[in-house]
Amino acid sequence: MGAGHAHKLYRHGHSPVHELPPHCKIAATAAFVIVVVSTPREAMWAFGLYAVLIAAVAAAARIPAGFLLRRLLIEVPFVLFAVLMPFVSQGERVDVLGMSLSVSGLWGAWNVLAKGTLGVAASVLLASTTELRALLLGLQRLKLPPLLVQIASFMIRYGDVITDELRRMSIARRSRGFEARGIQHWGVLAKTAGALFIRSYERGERVYLAMVSRGYAGSMPVIDDVTATRAQWAYSAVLPVTALAVCLMGWTL
Amino acid sequence: MHVPDGFIDAPVSVAAGVAATAAVAVSLRGARRELDERTAPLAGLVAAFIFAVQMLNFPVAAGTSGHLLGGALAAILVGPYTGVLCVSVVLLMQGILFADGGLTALGVNILNMAVVTVLVSYAVFRVLLRLLPSGRRSVTVAAFAGALLSVPGAAVMFTLLYALGGTTDVPIGKVFTAMVGVHVLIGLGEALITAATVGAVIAVRPDLVHGARGLAAPLKLRIGGQLVDAPAAAPVPAAARSTRKLWLTGLVTALVLAGFVSFYASSSPDGLEKVAADKGIDAKTKEHAAADSPLADYSVKDVDDARLSGGLAGVIGVGATVAVGSGIFWAVRRRRAQDLTASSTAAPSAS
Q1: Which Gene Ontology BP terms does the record give (chain A) (predicted)?
Q2: A177 lies in the same domain as A126
Q3: Helix, strand, coil % in chain A, rounded to nearest 5
Q4: DSSP alpha helices (H): ranges in chain B?
């Protein structure tokens, strides 16, 4: 399970952002998102500046804009929701293009859209510049309980295996002429899910036995510990600190 | 529903994060008891299973389809603690890797979709299992009921958080009407799928279903032509913790239900976004979510006023959420302490 397990969200590269230790990046991303969320929504210009900051980081990481924008599509359901808000909110109303819209709804929609989009963009940048394994290592360095990190790493490692098993079952069903068309076919699909659970669980037991036979005693050895120098911390702190400055300006202006 | 950044204000997000952290910490210990040192590989594989099974589409009719949320299923198949852990890990990875659900809203998401769904479904499941005659059919029925209530339960929790720290304001009436319908629908689908899946697993490997461990017939050996009881295996955890745990989970459920009644306009839990999107009902669902926010003065018109009331709402939110969170923590820890003494007394006799 060692090599070649880069997920498709990761974009290989050697930019300064890629080179940063993972825990610095995770901490910087989290700090940035917290700062963005606590910015008052009336300071619209601040969100523009945040977007510029994100774009600058993306440029430093040599992530093409198209890649970033495509990944932002995950947010679409919430955009739809935000669009509805001005129509259903209450309070003072304004006429825009002949439609009566709620002022507070407009602000609410703006708030969710701006902060949500910036948050998604920051996470996308993190995921596309950090390898999965490094990400997990970074989480561990950030004092996430080792057991939780182990569970997450097993989930990531076997996620593709389990998903492929599900796909093989689907191919087997279809090659026998089955096509799920409605609720009357849920029984078959539920049996698929049940079989998948049994296979996953039994695989887990086999994995455990294999680990025990190789000396596993409840904790995983850390063989490639990453440490961050002060300079690297300072470098990764540039983004959240700049954002904080913008945020403070947003509160005072 | 995966809540994005900026949907719930900062103080309430932080409080939800604290509560979620406490719940995950408790689950980490609890899962060790459910799975001992096999926790990491087994919980990891079950998390991968939940991740995969969320991709299994269940067609409803005319091109629409839904899929499983998995909280109730995980709780019943592998036990509540492992269930919370698995769903939390899935949410964590979705948040970090796929940007599905905001990083600052991670606590909110875990609280809604992992902790509440698992607690509600498992409590209902256990209570029903007690009341119903023992048998496979009862397990399926109890699983159905547990999953049915877990979705509205998560919706209630979301509503509660939204009421405390929502950043938008939408009339409660609209939300209420739309939300109830949507959640009954989603819960029904979840319940059907969960019950059928649990039934399918029980038919093949009943020993793997955590919720059905009481069903196993005692092992008999035929020695010299006579049936003899086999030497007792390790004690069944479920038996040791029955009453007290049941009582406490019942209390938690009651609290959740009380929250449901009072705050009635719920929004969507974790399944919301996915199932709703799949079913094409997002619009309504989200409208709901936004709709009910009693403390939503926070919104914009006059800045001074808004900030003041926003701060107040934040303070109230933090206080209430911390109180609820620590209450749950306390309850679970008590439960755990009791379990420990129970198992430590039971262990010597078994070994």
Answers
A1: cobalt ion transport
A2: no
A3: 70, 5, 25
A4: 10-35, 39-53, 71-78, 80-97, 106-109, 117-131, 136-165, 172-204, 237-240, 242-262, 270-271, 277-279, 282-291, 303-350
Confidence grade of residue A181 (pLDDT, cut at 50, 70, 90): confident
Same domain for A180 and A58, yes or no, is no
Q: How many CB pairs under 8 A join A and B?
A: 305
Q: Is A219 part of any domain?
A: no
Residues A157 and A204 in one domain: yes
Shortest CA gap B76–chain A (Å)? 12
- A164 and A234 in a single domain? The answer is no
Domains (range + CATH), chain B: 10-216+237-343 (1.10.1760.20)
Number of structural domains chain A divides into: 2
* Dist CA A130 CA A27 (whole Å): 13
In this structure, are A27 and A84 located in the same domain?
Answer: yes
Tens of pLDDT, residue by residue over B128-147, are 988 888 778 888 899 999 99
- Give the bridge partners for B228, in sequence order: B221
- DSSP run (H or E) holding A205: helix A186-213
pLDDT tens-digit map of A44-61: 888 888 889 989 888 888
Q: Tell me the mean pLDDT per 10 residues along chain B, length 351.
A: 75 88 89 76 87 80 71 88 90 82 85 90 90 84 90 82 71 62 80 89 84 71 78 54 56 52 37 43 41 39 42 47 56 55 46 39
Quick one: A149 and A110 in the same domain? no
Window A:73-102, CB contacts with B under 8 Å: 74-75, 77-78, 80-81, 84-85, 88-92
How large is the greatest C-alpha to C-alpha distance in chain B, in angstroms? Answer: 88
Dihedral (Cα; B331, B334, B336, B339), 10-degree rounding: -130
Are residues A115 and A232 located together in one domain of the fold?
Answer: yes
3-state SS, residue B135: coil
- CB–CB of B46/A204 below 8 Å? yes
Which of B6, B245, B24, B236 shows the shortest CA–CA distance to B130?
A: B245
Other beta carbons less than 10 A from residue B214's beta carbon: 13
Q: Do B44 and A71 touch (CB under 8 A)?
A: no
Exposed, middle or buried by CB within 10 Å (0-12, 13-18, 19+), for B206? middle
Measure the CA–CA gap between A250 and A242, rounded to whole angstroms.
Answer: 12
- Tell me the Cα Rg of chain B: 21
Number of CB atoms found within 10 A of residue B237's CB: 17
Asked if residues B90 and B118 have their Cβ atoms less than 8 Å apart, the reply is: no
CB contact under 8 A, B290 and A33: no
As a whole number of angstroms, the distance between CA A246 and CA A242 comes to 6
Range of the domain at A90: 16-138+227-252
Q: Is A4 within the bounds of a domain?
A: no
Name residues whose C-beta falls within 8 Å of residue B153's C-beta, 6 or more positions apart in sequence.
Answer: B116, B117, B119, B120, B121, B256, B260, B269
User: Which residues in chain A are contacts of B28 at CB distance < 8 A?
Assistant: 145, 147-148
